[in-house]
Design brief:
Helix content: 40-55%
Largest sheet: none
Distance between the termini: 30 Å
Order of helices and strands: HHHHHHH
Number of helices: 7
Structural class: mainly alpha
Oligomer: single chain
C-alpha cells in the first residue's frame, strides 16, 4: 500500500460497485492500509452504490481495529445505507458487540 501511495497511484478510482480504496481496505480487514489512506485524507465518508461507507464495511466484518481508526479520524456514525442502516446497526446485526459499542460511544 505504502509503495502505491508513494508512487502517486490514483486514489480517486472506484470499483464498478462504487467502492473506494478506503472501503476496500476496510473490507479486507487491513488496519495498516486504512491508516495509510486516512493520512492522505481519503474520503472517509464516501458511500458506494448501496450507501455503505468504510466504517459500515469494517463493522460488517467485525474489524474493531479498522473501525477504531475510522472513528478516531472522524467517520460519521449517523450516515445510513440504502437499507437505512447505520454502521452501529450493521455491527449489531452481525453480532459484533464490541464494534457496535465503539461506534455508539462516538455517536
Amino acid at each position: 500500500m505504502e509503495l502505491l501511495l508513494e508512487a502517486h497511484a490514483r486514489r480517486d478510482l472506484k470499483t464498478v460497485h462504487g467502492d473506494t480504496p478506503l472501503i476496500l481496505a476496510a473490507a479486507q480487514g487491513s488496519p495498516g492500509a486504512v491508516q495509510a489512506l486516512l493520512r492522505l485524507h481519503e474520503g472517509i465518508d464516501s458511500q458506494n452504490q448501496v450507501g455503505d461507507t468504510a466504517l459500515m464495511v469494517a463493522s460488517r466484518a467485525g474489524n474493531l481495529p479498522a473501525s477504531k481508526l475510522l472513528l478516531a479520524a472522524g467517520a460519521s456514525t449517523s450516515l445510513r445505507n440504502t437499507k437505512r442502516a447505520t454502521a452501529g446497526d450493521v455491527a449489531r446485526d452481525r453480532g459484533f458487540a464490541a464494534v457496535a459499542s465503539a461506534i455508539e460511544g462516538k455517536s
